[in-house]
Amino acid sequence: MSYLALYRKYRPRVFDDVVGQEHIVRTLTNQINTNRVAHAYLFCGSRGTGKTSIAKIFARAVNCEHPVNGSACGVCDACQKVQDGSGINIIEMDAASHNGVDNIREINEEVKYTPAVGKYKIYIIDEVHMLSTGAFNALLKTLEEPPAHVIFILATTDPQKIPVTILSRCQRFDFKRIAAKEIQDRLNIYMKEENIDIEDKALAYIAKLADGGMRDALSILEQSISFYFDETITLDKVLYLVGAVDSSILFDMIYAIIAQDTKKALELCEAVNAMGRSIRQFASDLLEHSRNLLIAKTTNGMASVLDYSSEYIKALQKQAEAISVNELMRYIKHFGQLEYELRNAISPRILLEVAMLKLSEIQMDTSAESMMTKIQFLEQKLDKLAEEGLKAAPIMAVASVVSSKEVIPARLPKAIPEDVRQLIKKWPEIKLKLGRAAWSIFETAEAGFVEDDIFYVVYKEGMDAPVSAHLEELKKVINEVAGKEVKVKPIEADDYATKCIEVYGSNPKQTEDIKDISSVIKNVAAKINFNIEIKN
Ligand SMILES: [Zn+2]
């Protein structure tokens, strides 16, 4: 007998075999039993959750003459023809490799003809999000008025990429990741059938690693069985085979963060993405890894706390030695937050990358946890300076370290002229954010703009001293409101009016933009009794 891969051997043939998608199975079997099938379905969900399997079970069932529990009977004429291959009414297309408009046009031509056997022709288009725009438009034509004998099942891992016009014409089913326990129980049944000796712990680990996908679970299992042929499969063996590969990325990532090697951290993000692993799972693995490191760092009798192989625990201890407890707390906080944010994220990869940036570039992290690291960094730097003979001038050393670039928190982007133009309108808001003393100084001042990136603070004559005394506070508030680094320049009203005339002439053009500025000039002109002509 030829060997059949586990995932093919145990691919569900009827709805009763399907694991973990009860909500979908129930709806579909009800539709078949009551003869109320739709003409277009969209199956969404991550890989290995059973989209194509269910699509095929459904396709066979809708053509069966006497369905049993909503699934094909396997004995009627139509079922026989499907099995011997003479009734070609289930057509599968992989949109990853057939994504052009011509591929869809071909289908549009075919759907006109009624099926040779059975009631329906079923088109299963896998990875439908890969279709080109032209192909989607062509598909839409058929979906708008599908012939009565045609059913489309569109399967995708990425529903966000599908045009709304297509979505609105499909009945949508969201396939959930299968719970690890459900996968484990099912694997257990298969292993008994196959007469394979495997530890429960090993099965539990494989189920967890599969991340909700039955197909992945079966292929990891398959690998383990072939590698340890005729041996008892233990957790240690499975860890060696797969876990070691998988967790090495976790170790590498933490080492990259410790070394503040942003480039490496981002490369690892890219690698995880390229492997097609769930980013949320990766975040939760990093969280668990950090927690393990913390345990490794703070406890001795580790084996009882951590359910891992002895080599793995050794590697954990080694890595834990390179990090402080505070640093680990910072990782745990960030990974926990990342995991939470990823729950509803549309762009998980970007969130992952931002988190890695914050972790691997300490100056980008403004959290309280990062302060300890920054302080430790300062202490180390001080020690180093002291060794270099700066013992005599510790305060100078502190000053030089504090002012060094590495510890300055994230710098704001620089404001461009358009930012300044917009900011002028927020002058009243800026003033309200000032402390009482500063407010009383700037209350009578105006904000000005003359086509460059400088935010002019226009003040009355004779106010030089109080203005410069409160300038720092004003600058801080302006940057806060703008979210940018703004060049702020105090200027006396008549100097400002002169500047305006230089830039705009005494007769500024009537544009929307100038209007705001002209009112400023007018106010200023009125205050200093300067005669400036502005047409309204
Ligand atoms: Zn049948």
Q: What features would you describe in this structure?
A:
With 536 residues, the chain is an alpha/beta fold. The chain has five domains: 165 residues, P-loop containing nucleotide triphosphate hydrolases (Rossmann fold); 54 residues, Orthogonal Bundle (Helicase, Ruva Protein, domain 3), CATH 1.10.8; 120 residues, Up-down Bundle (Zinc Finger, Delta Prime, domain 3), CATH 1.20.272.10; 37 residues; 112 residues, GMP Synthetase, Chain A, domain 3 (2-Layer Sandwich). 57% of the residues lie in helices and 8% in strands. The strands form two sheets. Strands 2-3-4-1-5 form a five-stranded parallel beta sheet, covered by helices on one side. A hairpin with a 5-residue loop joins β6 and β7. α8 crosses α9 and α16 runs antiparallel to α18. The longest helix has 24 residues. The C terminus is likely disordered. The structure holds zinc ion. The site of zinc ion (ZN) has 8 residues, from α4.
